[in-house]
Amino acid sequence: MGAYIACYQVYHAGDKGDEPLGDECVRINIDPLSPPLLNSPADQSEVQSPYPQFTWMPPTPFDMFTDANYEILVTEVVPGQSSTEAIQYNTPVYTKSNILQTYESYPSSFSALDTGKIYAWQVIARNGLNYAVKTEVWTFKLRKDSVNKKPVYGNYFLLDNRVEGIYNVKKDSLHVKFISFSLSYESGIIISDENGRVIKQFTQKIKPGDNYFNLGIGNEFRTGRVYKLTITDVAKKQHSLRFTINKN
Q1: What is the mean pLDDT of residues 24-52?
Q2: Percentage of the residues of the chain whose pLDDT score is greater than 70
Q3: CB 3.0-4.6 Å disulfide test: which of 9, 23, 133, 239 passes with 35?
């Protein structure tokens, strides 16, 4: 699997030895049976956040890969240009390589995307450093009212084990964002104190993609103490964050 150049030579087998008659090289792409499939944002859709998240499905059969990784390209489509031309010729507004998972978020450290523009995106699958196969090109744009709203991500604490530290909750509600890459399922959400004692628990339906929870902080929580919120996914993996209460 990959991109190759195959060369061949033709000889005349004469009495005095082989006499070269010519040679030629051709390019050959050996592709998986199925390339990666883009998932979200959907083709020609409108997104609400100027910092969208991109998701896709891996190529199949996946066991053909020994070192699967991905590269994503996001670029603006100018008027009169096709999405494929935009990917090929325009400077990307965002690109990242060596992605090991099948999702990537547009970083909040970058300039927010513009509601007046159409964007194209594509994912390239590689096996190690070698090109394997690429997806088709999809387009999306921002809703017109999204630029007037503060990105919802900025109001919610991201539930991600890679995020370290303790969140400071200043109001009577804990706003949590959890990203799921599984089909819909129900999970128990548990809030416990520093000693592991369960303070509050309830069941919540988790849908694919972004999930936003507004959790009330009642009198059972004390100012200045550290608490932990935990969600268990379908693979029984726990995702948690720590927070402290400041009601001033």
Answers
A1: 85
A2: 89
A3: 133
Q: Measuring CA to CA, which residue among 248, 175, 167 is closest to residue 217?
A: 175
- Rounded mean pLDDT of the chain? 84
Between the CA of residue 192 and those of 15, 127, 201, 219, 231, what are the distances in Å? Answer: 89, 43, 9, 14, 12
The span from the CA of 8 to the CA of 151, in Å, is 57
What number of residues does the chain have?
248
- Specify the higher pLDDT residue, 111 or 131: 131
Kind of pairing between the strands at 238-245 and 226-232: antiparallel
Query: Is pLDDT above 90 for 90?
Result: yes
CATH architecture of 156-245: Sandwich (2.60)
Given this chain, do its domains 32-148 and 156-245 carry the same CATH topology?
yes
Q: Which of 2.60.40.10, 3.40.50.300, 3.30.470.20, 3.40.50.620 would CATH assign to domain 32-148?
A: 2.60.40.10
Cα–Cα distance between 218 and 129 in angstroms, integer? Answer: 53
31 three-state secondary structure: coil
Q: So what's the pLDDT on residue 145?
A: 63
CA 55 from chain centre, in angstroms, equals 4
CA distance 74 to 141: 12
